[in-house]
Amino acid sequence: MESDRFWAVKYRLLEYVKSPSLKHIRDPQSVNKLAKEILTSLDQASSVWRKWDGVRDDVAKAAAYCWIPVEGLRAFLNQLPGPELTITDVNQRLRAIWEETTSNGYPNEDVKDACLALYEMEQAAGTEMMAIIGALQEFIEAEEERLRVEGEARYKRLREEEQARLEQMFLAGADSPWIKVGQSKDLFCRKNGRAFRIAQGKDKRWSLFRIANVDDAGKLLGVYGTRGDANKALKTIAYEVEPRW
């Protein structure tokens, strides 16, 4: 392994000093690039993944989330320099990439079928593998954004439908949790068949009222620091004896 690391660094240095320009050799940006290449080569030379040189690993990482059939990916990788890869080699390298990349995790199942269809179409058209990988990456980015927008719209619609259902429950006289009714900024609920309204003042404190209907100013029952305090008090108030309305 030490020999591998030595030759990996030596190769990069020899390639670098081949430059006929002393200005290029001394250029800070070029030196930074060389340093990064040396670090990368050291990581690869000491890697336990012995069949995966820089190019192969770069391709695997690019393809890892694209749902490319493993046999097709293996066939392409075996065209690149390096020892023959088996299906297990490719499967396990992909699994390691997924587990190492905590920000992405595993490939998105929601785009699998569409990715496979696009892959088959591009293969049939004769598109080369790296172009297919690029097309799939762009497709996945657009598809995931579409799914995100649709999911948010669906959640908003379901929330609005649930709000309308709870509002109808309250207006029909059924017990309901705190909800908004109409255009009012206040919240209303019904507990033990009794209607209540709660409003937050400029001092951020919550005033709890017993009401007869949504248009009723109601009777002030108490002022509380938080809605949680008001809810706690309501559990008792809703079942206490009260004057006839």
Describe this protein's structure:
The protein has 245 residues and is of the alpha+beta class. The termini are far apart. It is elongated and about 95 Å long. It has three domains: 1-46; 53-172, no CATH class; 176-237. Helix 7 (112-125) packs antiparallel against helix 8 (129-171). The mean pLDDT is 89. The protein has helices at 2-17, 22-26, 28-45, 54-63, 70-77, 87-100, 112-125, 129-171, 227-237; strands spanning 176-179, 187-191, 194-200, 206-211, 219-224.
Shape: elongated
The side-by-side strand order for the widest beta sheet comes to 1-2-3-4-5
Low-confidence stretches: none
Query: What number of domains?
Result: 3
SSE class: alpha+beta
Number of strands: 5
The SSE order reads HHHHHHHHEEEEEH
User: What is the overall pLDDT average?
Assistant: 89
Q: How large is the radius of gyration?
A: 33 Å
Main beta sheet strand tally, sense and closure:
5 strands, antiparallel
Give the % helix: 55-70%
Distance between the termini: 89 Å
